[in-house]
Amino acid sequence: MAASEPWYVTAFRGGYRDVYPHRDLASARREAAWLLAHDVRGRVLDLCCGFGRHSLALTEYGCDVFGLDLSLDLLRAAHADEHTRAIAHRLVRGDARELPFATGSFDSVVVLFSSFGYFGRDGDARMLAEIARVLRPEGRAVLDLMNPARVRAALVPHSVTQRGEQVVDERRRIEPGAADGGPSSIVVKDVVLTGPGGVSRSWTERVGLYELGALERALRAHGLGPTGVHGDFDATQHSATSPRQIVVVRRT
């Protein structure tokens, strides 16, 4: 790893999908149905799309979907997968802080599975500004985030999981964030993925936790008005114990 390489470049290389096998097409279809029930429709940007499982699920429901991700490995995986290769030509490589799309070109933007909070206060603000820019007036965005209270209460410091010939060793901790309107704290996860023959790869993930009030202020600063907060991709109410913090916003 180059000394200047950001963690989110290193983390999403080959092997990342082995750490999160539950993030499959079946779950994406259930989550896509929830998104449609909460006004995601029309031309949709799946921001930080990974290998495109939500892009495919939303396409199956009739949306006109484009995806964007920074990871070339994950985008290549979309072309290799028997399901997502059908929409892989609609997934492009790019940075969420500088979107290669025209102003007002999307009816909806979705940011799923804690793909917000990677860049610190200023970088996260640029990402929100870009979401607002590419949304048409009255367009909808959905940000699916970790729930800070739940993470603090239920963080598992260390786990080792074996999946076939792969062993995943994960160490987790919470570090303080800057008191500057950005994330209140940072979830840090050190991952060692060991495969056949003892060959291993390691990386560190650092994702900012946003308290709901701070997140809502950041959204409103970019013309994104929150319309609802949910605790999961079902009827779960948002609370200190809910699994997720899913915020639905409208471009004002």
Descriptive terms for the model:
single chain; 252 residues; alpha/beta; Rossmann fold; seven-stranded mixed beta sheet; four-stranded antiparallel beta sheet; 11 strands; 27% helix; 33% strand; globular
Notes on the protein architecture:
- The chain has a seven-stranded mixed beta sheet with strand order 3-2-1-4-5-11-10, sandwiched between helices.
- Helix 4 links the parallel strand 1 and strand 2 (64-69).
- It is 27% helix and 33% strand.
- The protein is built from eight helices and eleven strands.
- The chain has helices at 7-10, 16-19, 25-37, 53-60, 72-80, 120-134, 148-154, 212-220, and strands spanning 43-47, 64-69, 91-93, 106-111, 135-146, 158-163, 166-176, 185-194, 200-209, 224-230, 244-251.
- The chain has two domains: 7-146 and 210-251, Vaccinia Virus protein VP39 (Rossmann fold, 3-Layer(aba) Sandwich), CATH 3.40.50.150; 151-204.
- It is globular.
- The longest helix is centred in the middle third of the chain and has 15 residues, at 120-134.
- It has 252 residues and is α/β, with parallel strands linked by helices.
